[in-house]
Design brief:
By secondary structure, this protein is an alpha+beta fold. It is 34% helix and 23% strand. It contains 6 helices and 8 strands; from the N terminus they run βββββααααβββαα. The strands form 2 sheets. Strands 1-2-3-5-4 form a 5-stranded mixed β-barrel. A hairpin with a 3-residue loop joins β2 and β3. The radius of gyration is 20 Å and the shape is elongated.
């Protein structure tokens, strides 16, 4: 017999108006994966649940099963990440991660590793001291998510000839989803990237997220990583 209610610990990815007084909450939990939940009456002035289901909140939630949608019976935030919400640059960085996560992850496919990755990067952005670090960490975490979901570009060998590229003339071919050496560049369609960018993206996949704060990256390289990530997100 299917239980009429169940509990989850989730991260709110986004929320949007639904019907006259409700909110549609998109959340990700290790128990259920990504799912859409209705928060009844959450748009009313006296709603007790609205403050607990803002984007980026970590919530403990009791869910009621419905015929077409499941409903939030109750929700209590365990961490609202007030550091993110106090600064526009942090909000933008966290929003970028959550938008990509929402776009990439299918509903109903729980994965504890993905949940921990999302939790850790949001917590890291919440405590960031410099705005430029928040943007860089968001870009690096998005690249990690590409890897964790099977879309990681090949950054070790040329996708055309299989050789290890020289330091100069490396290209990233989005269609082939990997780097291209200088000898094969005429066959590629994409953008030229630096050896340092390749090294940093490789490193991002290997480090624990908490160690992102130890990275020393100059402004030009951070902007290059942002451009690369933006291109990859367009695939």
């Amino acid at each position: 017999m299917i239980e009429e209610t169940y509990r989850i610990k989730a991260i709110v990815l986004k929320r949007q108006p639904f019907r006259e007084h409700d909110l549609l909450i998109t959340a990700y939990s290790p128990e259920k994966g990504k799912q859409a939940l209705i928060a009844r009456g959450a748009r009313k002035f006296r709603s007790k649940i609205a403050a607990h289901v803002e984007p980026f909140c970590f919530i403990d939630c009791m869910v009621v099963r419905g015929k077409t949608h499941d409903y939030m019976g109750s929700a209590l935030s365990s961490n609202c990440l007030v550091g993110i919400k106090s600064d526009f640059d942090r909000v933008e960085a966290a929003s970028r991660v959550c938008r990509f996560f929402d776009k990439t992850i299918k509903e109903g496919q729980p994965d504890i590793t993905l949940f921990v990755e999302l939790r850790d990067i949001l917590a890291l952005i919440d405590g960031v001291q410099h705005a430029e670090d928040a943007a860089l960490w968001a870009d690096l975490s998005i690249f990690r998510l590409l890897s964790r979901t099977g879309y990681e570009p090949d950054l070790h060998r040329c996708v055309f000839c299989g050789s290890k590229p020289d330091a100069e003339g490396i290209m990233l071919d989005q269609a082939k989803n990997g780097i291209v050496c200088q000898r094969c560049a005429g066959q590629a369609k994409g953008l030229t990237i630096s050896e340092n960018a390749v090294k940093l993206l490789r490193l991002a996949n290997e480090l624990e997220i908490s160690r992102f704060r130890n990275l020393k990256v100059d402004r030009s390289l951070a902007l290059e990583i942002s451009l690369i990530t933006t291109r990859l997100m367009e695939q």
